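Repro:
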Amino acid sequence: MSFRTPEILPSVILDDVRGAQKMLSGVARVTPMEGSRHLSQLVGAPVHLKCENLQRTGSFKLRGAYVRIAGLRPEERAAGVVAASAGNHAQGVALASSLLGVRSTVFMPVGAPLPKVAATREYGADVRLQGQVVDETLAAAEDYARETGAVLIHPFDHPDIIAGQGTVGLEILEQCPEVRTILVGIGGGGLAAGIAVAVKALRPDVKVIGVQAEGAAAYPPSLVAGHPVSIRQPSTMADGIKVGRPGDVPFKIIGDLVEEVRTVSEDALSSALLLCLERAKMVVEPAGASTVAALLSDPRSFEGPVVALLSGGNVDPLLMQRILRHGMAAAGRYLSLRLRLTDRPGALAGLLGLLSVADANVLDVSHVRTDPRLGLTEVEVELHLETKGPEHCEEVAATLRAEGYTVMG
């Protein structure tokens, strides 16, 4: 049994998305849309955030998974379903299966975040950890489907999945009828394809722009080539869009309907996640913040009003901690300095007092006396400081130099 997409690709139309919307009534939340004053000022036009991070299971994935499983024949339901995912699709399939009374088995990578593994089990799935990357995990799920007859629920490469995800587009048009640009993160492409089908059928004047992480951007070269192209070893903190090859079905739709696909850096993703937390009060995973990263990277290039989709909020707390540190560093909120002092009592206390007056928060101090490069009466101090931004960093360094300190780095 093969799970390759047939050469004659199935299509998805507006009626499919509308049918999915009826099917999802009472199952998926109509997630809120929040305005962002800060992003609106940067863009020079109204910016709204479509908060799928507040969807059941923490992402949009429930929509497509439920529509796909609900459309199975009775004998297919009896055989159960199987999926492969690092987290969001896993949880969507697990909950959808439980709601529909279908047995589910979900393969997840060995290194999948423990909170996502635990949540998937709590939604009722039999979780099996196999493979180091999602491609290996998907191969294990395909083997399981061949051996058991379970139906593989692909995360993005199926018309029912695309139709379910497209219901987000219908909600956007209902909640923000004046929208001119919609930004959506792209991994395999199911979400962007579904939104494009719904939006372009009703409002062909609205631009749909996809966003990918630079280290996992398979769509730009694929669109140039005219067919899906695989990239080797995709690498990004945004595991929700870390996909090495576009799906065949969504690729055709995106090529026809999506205006452009932009890429964003890891620094931009970190800064976007930090902004969502600080300014929008939203817990968003890196993939979910990719649209905000695109706004931060080139804010004046979008026609407003703009809707940026926050596609998910499932982030491992340990990863969140690392990302926030990275985001603060990218935003100029950390400053590392090395200085040489005269090794005498009170010298370090005087330095720390000066930093206190400069309103810099000292996070770490390293005091070195034994380096052979130091003079007999010298000591080197390395400081890690929390600041208020790039301008404050410059002010702190200037204050130290004005007091006679030699700032070495």
